[in-house]
Amino acid sequence: MPRVMRRRSSTGIYHIMIRGINQQNIFVEDEDNERFIDTLAGYQKEIEYEIYAYCLMGNHVHLLMKEGNEEIGNTMRRIGVSYAYWYNWQYNRKGHLFQDRFRSEVVEDDAYFLTVLRYIHLNPVKAGLISDIKTYKWGSFKEYIERSRIVNTNLVLAMFSTERDKALARFRIFHLEANEDQCLDIDPKRKTFSDNEIRQLVLDKYNVELAKLHSMEPGTQTEILKYLKGQGGASLRQLSRMTGFTVHRIFKA
Fold first, then answer.
1. What's the pLDDT at 3?
2. Residue that wins the pLDDT comparison between 151 and 127
3. DSSP at 99
4. Measured torsion, CA atoms of residues 237, 239, 240, 246, in degrees rounded to the nearest 10
5. How many Cβ atoms are within 10 Å of 166's Cβ, its own excluded?
6. Burial, 7: exposed, middle or buried (Cβ in 10 Å; 0-12, 13-18, 19+)?
7. Which domains does the chain have, with CATH numbers?
């Protein structure tokens, strides 16, 4: 059977997972993890893609990334071939290392972007490998709280606050919140709303102007923000721009 065409993201951002063939380990020693990250860093300079989150687990990898100057499939093939060549040489093996082609899903709104980000960072915690997210060596959470190497941390932290200290504090709290995040399964038929349509939704339901939301009681703010999120057609950044609230405040509503 012919392969199903991969869905293209309107934002260029994807959640990607690659897995070892027959679920075999693709990272045996720390040197393997370092090599894979070096491979990501090397092609990043050439292809100019952006990485927002990553997590290297024993037999698979999660990435949250925006494609660069070529189609994402070409980029992942380059990364996979380069690492597999090195891995086979390192362990004196032959043949395929990765299971079929990589899996991916589009990430086209801020709410799902943050969901995927947290899902990736919490992978080793939910797998029972660690209890404290800060202690995992091969995930990008540490790049946010220590030093960024290959991750664009600015875009994400700006969703929490324009002040770095506040953004980091909220970023940490966000990862500690109870959640049942599930990824690689989203609705491709989601409707989008214009600014005028969003204003009209609020006017029709609450008989208030959206521009006045910032001056209302916190409970009313939360109710209206929750209503708008529930419609599924407005991005968090769009609502942030229209209301003046941070993306994180809207996400938590």
1. 53
2. 151
3. -
4. -90
5. 14
6. exposed
7. 13-176 (3.30.70.1290), 195-252 (no CATH)
